[in-house]
Amino acid sequence: MVTDPIADYLTRIRNAQMANHRIVEIPASNLKKRITEILYDKGYILKYKFEDDSKQGVIKIALKYDVSTKLPAIQSLERVSRPGLRSYAKPDEFKRVKNGLGVAIISTSKGVMTDKEARAQNVGGEVLCNIY
């Protein structure tokens, strides 16, 4: 049993990129599915696929790399809020990730969204992770 599924999700992606894998498989949950959709919308991953098996399902993510340098599109995946130290913020307190070039993923009462979307809707919440 994994005590922090979001940290496990980020670590699987980070490890797959360091090993230059094209596809990574991650056990699915609704929160992980929404984070995957955000990563795809922001252009950090190539594509994704949700597969149902007899248990909880699997998310297959095709990782994105630069063609010429072979560097991954995601430079850093950083877990902000963890089980031992939760991090909550109001819309005006969200810190900019890489001076606005990165994305913070926020879990709000209106669902999981980016920091920019949360600011636009004027909702605060738990800062899950920073990605750039």
List keywords for this structure.
single chain, 132 residues, alpha+beta, five-stranded antiparallel beta sheet, three-stranded antiparallel beta sheet, 3 helices, globular
Secondary structure: elements and pairs:
Elements lengths: L4 H14 L4 E5 L2 H12 L3 E7 L6 E6 L13 E3 L8 E2 L13 E6 L2 E4 H7 L3 E7 L1
Antiparallel strand pairs: 1-3, 2-3, 4-8, 5-8, 6-7, 6-8
The number of helical elements comes to 3
Gyration radius, in Å: 15 Å
Q: What separation lies between the terminal Cα atoms?
A: 29 Å
How many strands appear in the DSSP assignment? Answer: 8
The major β-sheet equals:
5 strands, antiparallel
**Whole-number average pLDDT?**
94
Backbone structural class = alpha+beta
Runs in which pLDDT lies below 50 for 5 or more consecutive residues are none
The global form is globular
Strand content of the residues, in percent? 25-35%
The arrangement of helices and strands along the chain is HEHEEEEEEHE
Helix content: 25-40%
Question: What is the compact description of this entry?
Answer:
The protein contains three helices and eight strands, in the order H-E-H-E-E-E-E-E-E-H-E.
Describe the structure in your own words.
This protein is of the alpha+beta class and 132 residues long. The protein has helices spanning 5-18, 30-41, 115-121, and strands spanning 23-27, 45-51, 58-63, 77-79, 88-89, 103-108, 111-114, 125-131. Strands 4, 5, 6, 7 and 8 form a five-stranded antiparallel beta sheet that branches. The longest helix has 14 residues, at 5-18. The two termini are 29 Å apart.
